[in-house]
Amino acid sequence: MLDEERRFLDSHRDELVKEYGEKFLVIRGEQVSGAFDTIEEALYAGFSKHGLTNILIRRPSEGPITLSAPAFTLGILSADTAHSANQTDDDGR
Q1: Radius of gyration (Cα) for the chain, nearest Å?
Q2: Spatial distance between the Cα atoms of 75 and 87, rounded to a whole number of angstroms
């Protein structure tokens, strides 16, 4: 997962640092689709633009960071509310 994005970042690290400095980059495939001052801005923009596909968000000057979004990956955000943890059964349990 994200092998292509990591290879792109590693092979272009010097030029990305020169161009974007300390910004958080949103990388999809072999393209930078955005550069942001905060990780929150990068996350919002990345998911807004790419939806539920995998994206790499990193500062090119930093070492590896692992971010997992299982709620997106597993589809929990679109779960059936009839089976929620707060739902009671026929006996009130």
Answers
A1: 18
A2: 19
DSSP element (H, E) containing 28: strand 24-28
Retrieve residue 11's tokens. 């092979």
Q: What is the DSSP letter of 19?
A: H
Q: What predicted TM-score, i.e. pTM, was given to this entire model? A: 0.66
- The upper half-sphere exposure of residue 61, i.e. CA atoms within 13 Å in the direction of its Cβ, equals 8
pLDDT tens for the chain, 93 residues long, are 899 999 999 999 999 999 999 999 999 999 999 999 999 999 999 999 999 899 999 999 886 656 666 666 666 655 455 555 555 555 555
Q: Which residues have C-beta within 8 Å of that of residue 73, sequence separation ≥ 6?
A: 52
C-beta of residue 24 within 8 angstroms of C-beta of residue 39: yes
How many Cβ atoms from other residues are within 10 Å of residue 84's Cβ?
8
